[in-house]
Amino acid sequence: MNLLLQEIRHNPLLWLLGFVPVVFAAAKFKPEAHTLLFVLSVLAIVPLAVLLSHATESVAAKTGDAVGGLLNATLGNLTELVIALTALRAGQIMLVKASIAGTIVTNTLFMLGASFLLGGLKHHVQEYNRVSARVQAGLLFLATVALLVPSAVGTADSGTGAAFTQKLSVGLAVLLIVAYGLGMLFSLKTHREFFTSAKPAADGEAAWPMPLALASLAGVTVLVALVSEIFVESVQKAAEAFGMTPAFVGFIVVALVGGAAEMASAFSGARKNRLDLSVGIALGSASQIALFVAPVLVLLSYVVGPTPMDLQFWPGAVVMVLIATLTATLVTNSGRSAWFVGVLVLMVYLIFAMTLYLLPPRVQ
Amino acid sequence: MNLLLQEIRHNPLLWLLGFVPVVFAAAKFKPEAHTLLFVLSVLAIVPLAVLLSHATESVAAKTGDAVGGLLNATLGNLTELVIALTALRAGQIMLVKASIAGTIVTNTLFMLGASFLLGGLKHHVQEYNRVSARVQAGLLFLATVALLVPSAVGTADSGTGAAFTQKLSVGLAVLLIVAYGLGMLFSLKTHREFFTSAKPAADGEAAWPMPLALASLAGVTVLVALVSEIFVESVQKAAEAFGMTPAFVGFIVVALVGGAAEMASAFSGARKNRLDLSVGIALGSASQIALFVAPVLVLLSYVVGPTPMDLQFWPGAVVMVLIATLTATLVTNSGRSAWFVGVLVLMVYLIFAMTLYLLPPRVQ
Amino acid sequence: MNLLLQEIRHNPLLWLLGFVPVVFAAAKFKPEAHTLLFVLSVLAIVPLAVLLSHATESVAAKTGDAVGGLLNATLGNLTELVIALTALRAGQIMLVKASIAGTIVTNTLFMLGASFLLGGLKHHVQEYNRVSARVQAGLLFLATVALLVPSAVGTADSGTGAAFTQKLSVGLAVLLIVAYGLGMLFSLKTHREFFTSAKPAADGEAAWPMPLALASLAGVTVLVALVSEIFVESVQKAAEAFGMTPAFVGFIVVALVGGAAEMASAFSGARKNRLDLSVGIALGSASQIALFVAPVLVLLSYVVGPTPMDLQFWPGAVVMVLIATLTATLVTNSGRSAWFVGVLVLMVYLIFAMTLYLLPPRVQ
Lengths: 364, 364, 364
Prior knowledge:
The first copy, chain A, is mainly alpha-helical. Helix content of chain A is about 75%, strand content about 0%. Chain A has 14 helices and 2 strands. Chain A has helices at about 1-10, 20-30, 35-60, 65-75, 80-90, 95-120, 130-155, 160-190, 210-240, 245-260, 260-270, 275-300, 315-330, 340-360, and strands at about 125, 335. A two-stranded antiparallel sheet of chain A has the order 1-2. In chain A, α5 (about 80-90) packs across α9 and α13 (about 315-330) runs antiparallel to α14 (about 340-360). Chain A is globular and about 55 Å long. Chains in contact: A-B, A-C, B-C. The interface between A and B is medium-sized, with 33 and 30 residues.
């Protein structure tokens, strides 16, 4: 417990934990104040995501390389998974889909671009492991194809029907999970020598002892789930109050909130000239969402949700995911970076954000 | 003749030649047994394709480098050409188009991916000649653009009319054949030093003497044409019996049957750590279909077919060909491979196959 | 003045200057002879563009590296800008848009491809600076994304409305200009060591003294503007007389006329085995049109035009720009070239030109 407090004292982001009780109190006494609840829940989720990520890493560090890598890879996007599950249970399929596509786009463009820019402002030219970046980009490309096909076929012919899309989505979900598993087998086992420097190191932070780590993992997950419920309920109404379109909220706001913890690590890695770490987090996180979180949500939607979810996205979302993947592939191809590469990638993100912000609501 | 028998004894695939007389007998006495005829004709075409490919290589080996390369390149997809011509004469334009697109996709994804996987399971990391792969990928990209444009314009505006598409297709066909010819001039003549190791070697098999090779070439082509007729007549009805959609049949079944011989060579090359050979066969065969077979069929359709054929494909087919080309380009860019690269490429193929299998029939 | 005359004597293209007075006379006495005026104005614009380009380079050479680079980059497409502004003032938004998309496509495909081919016919293999090519291709890719998004969203949903497209276009225009400025900061200031050999050298030609250069710059710009007016007025009617579609005129004819000066430099660089120069001019000019000229026209359209211009292009134009950018990216990735690479790139251009030529008029 002392360790936990010490950690909190050192990391200013964790001071936001104070908002966790506040948001619960507000939800109880002011259930109609959507904008307030939205802001408070965002402020509460961010430090919880940081804690969750630290707890996962501590458990991973104790369990040895292979199992640890597996744990890190599976629980690394636990926050996003819990938020999406909450939205799924509330029947908000559109929000879940927007946040999946948005997280992929935000991680590949904003997280990667800002890492390149922040690193490049401090270091003239930065080099990183391109083999690792290529495998991640390859996985991401595969996932994009899987997302593209049902949407392309669904758009090309409006008569294909929901039954076709449902069956296809379940099949694709299984394929993606298999590809994800094989990708871990490849990078953690058979060819791990190519991936060494991309592994997230503990980075000076002391790993927690096992009981504390496991207890935090369980406790914080429950807290994230509870706060997510308030977040999901308030987000759409708050968005209207801020003049934001629902597409913008799902794509940009939810994605930024859910990924706050990874972003902190990626940016700090870039500043320390450890771009391998940043690229690994950004692309790894994106491909994890695409190949693990999204298909798991499709399969779980048959169990927990009021209606099953499919993988057919709004065409604009498919175009954005496709462009984001292509950008990441082209940009990481050389294994070198300078500040302007970051600017280019961020500009693509800004174009998307601007389009979504201006988009008339009923289009999404 | 002895040589031919010796060859048959050594190659188990050739034992299937026994099905050639069986399929003719069945077509005469049981013309209504579509499913049976379909299965028998598939079993008969595969060994004929192997023989045809060996005969072509033998003639090529005897005629010296430049002419041999030319022959190999032009007759390498003779089986596909004969099947497609038979379908064209029967007026089955949709089947011809599906099999063209399907052969491109099957060669770039299934043949390439399975070669990478089979080679990678035996060898940790494999290297191959990337210059040669790049030229093939470049040719393939060009062909994809040529297929994309009439379809994109045709889709964007339904009022462009058939006359426009016909004229454009003939023009594109001529352009593609010119590009194909210049590509051969480049790789066989002006810059052949970059392509040396990608040339298909006789690979331990004895080349046949010229008379036998020429006689086989002529005789087997006639046999393939005759069996193709039975195949084309039975394939659609048999597909229904198996519960396969017509799109799946054209894209996957016809493409796999027509390419069986090349696949055998490509996979055996990959196992022997001669990935140059596999990549050359897979991409070379795909670009040959796209730049030579497809335009020749367009031009021939004005002579042999009941209706002329154009290059406007179903949008889903264009998307698949585009993704297949992009995948091949990205994957062969590094000149290195491991088993997981094969998995990624095969997964893209599986996504397409699954989509086509589930597609409601009337959409194709 | 002597220097100017000397220049004219040495460069046969400049003999065409004789057509400048002729076109003004013809416009005064035969205002109805559209075809004649069109041909004369084309013949007059080409030498003016060459003079303008030489004047810009002379001013740039005198003002030192950074300012010179800036001037070169901003005024390098002055001819295109003046022609487009004239068309904008005449309310011919469709022509402006077609010529923007057409110039990007013509520079990335025709200018680049012909440089590779012309250079490759003389030199077996040519090498060039790929870092510089990559940055240009990256900027071009960004611009393509910016053009793609409003068109994609506009096509996906016809209900988004003109107000959305207008607002989005202005926002994108500002973003693109910022990206363009940062790109110059990067290539001329912070990381210029990577771009050294790509800088257009005076190439044996003597730089003009400052007063002559400045006077030419001002005088020739006015002449280009005056001739452009005749060109823009006559082009559509002349096109009909030649049997060309308006799309073909905007995309191909206007783009070739406006870029004649740059093409002369690019081709001569390629023949002299200075492919860095050719690639720099082709891609640099294309990205300048996309990131500077196009957004400036959008912003200026609110001041000078009868109707404001947006960035929503005809879907076919977006597909062509996208493919052109992708082609340039893939082709310049290796930093090496041979004649066949030029053929491939030119073939893509021919496919587009053929499609536009055959396109029924009302589709564009």
